[in-house]
Amino acid sequence: MPELPEVEALAHHLREHVTARLVARVDVAALTVLKTVDPPPSALHGRAVTGATRYGKFLALHCLEREPGAEREPGAEREPGRDRERGELHLVMHLARAGWLRWSENLSPVPPKPGKGPIALRVHLGDVLGLEGRGSSVGFDLTEAGTQKRLAVYVVRDPAQVPGIARLGPDALALSRDGLAALLHGRTERIKTALTDQGLLAGVGNAYSDEVLHAARLSPYTTVGRLDDDALDRLHVALQEVLTAAVDRSVGQDAARLKGEKRAGLAVHARTGLPCPVCGDTVREVSFADKSMQYCPTCQTGGKPLADRRMSRLLR
Ligand SMILES: [Zn+2]
User: Fold this and answer.
1) Which of 124, 145, 201, 296 could form a disulfide with 24 if both were Cys (CB 3.0 to 4.6 A apart)?
2) Residue 58: helix, strand or coil by DSSP?
3) pLDDT tens digits, one per residue of 42-86
4) From ligand 1's centre to the CA of 299, what distance in Å?
5) Which conformational region is residue 306 in: left (phi greater than 0), alpha (psi within -120 to 50 degrees), or beta?
């Protein structure tokens, strides 16, 4: 599942490759991914892309209606109030568990066949503004592997009209140490649950919460409201360092050309049974109904394996 670093890398890729291009056509191959009705995707046709932004794990492409003589310089700052008046629309994408954005400089002009294959949406991008008539076959597909079908696409006049964006907590990369402390103060859930709650803290999912907790040397079962000052310091540093390093790696790998699940540089996540790169202990796993988390006992839990409810049930 793409999390903050991968979605940030996708936003970076789109900003570099799409800004100032015109949206030629949007093909919807899987109607179920489209969560809004009005405006329709065809309302994006002919608009100029002015940029891309990440909101938590959501990705938005900003598309401005063209007004002859009133076009913003490519790369110029967004002006949300003025742009809304001028009819800015946003294509908002949530890649969810098995979704990905596949960039192509040789995109097929044919609409993908509905109900066949993993392509849910195809966005054809046309000429660069001011260079009309040169022709272009660049664009991207939104794909979804597997059967869960959670990929979601919205066409909205304001990104905050997407319920998942409206309820986002502060971005994980934007929080100060004191902001983090205030956010977690008095809460009673486990830290693994808190870090992945998008309404509390935006951007971190199952993979990077494992990595952040390992780097902070904290048990995933720690009650967040009971973190002492030293633990809060470590957690804040780990959040910044783990996410920043992962953003840099993802941007360097050109995320739009990679598979979503391919991540480099992980210490514990998806590494059950392998040695911890810090201490050499064996990485362990706790499984739940539809996911699992990994941790290092020596680094995080005083050497003690955590209770695995599924295992305990089986052994009872
Ligand atoms: Zn370790």
Assistant:
1) 124
2) strand
3) 999 999 999 999 999 999 999 998 765 445 555 566 666 555 555
4) 4
5) beta
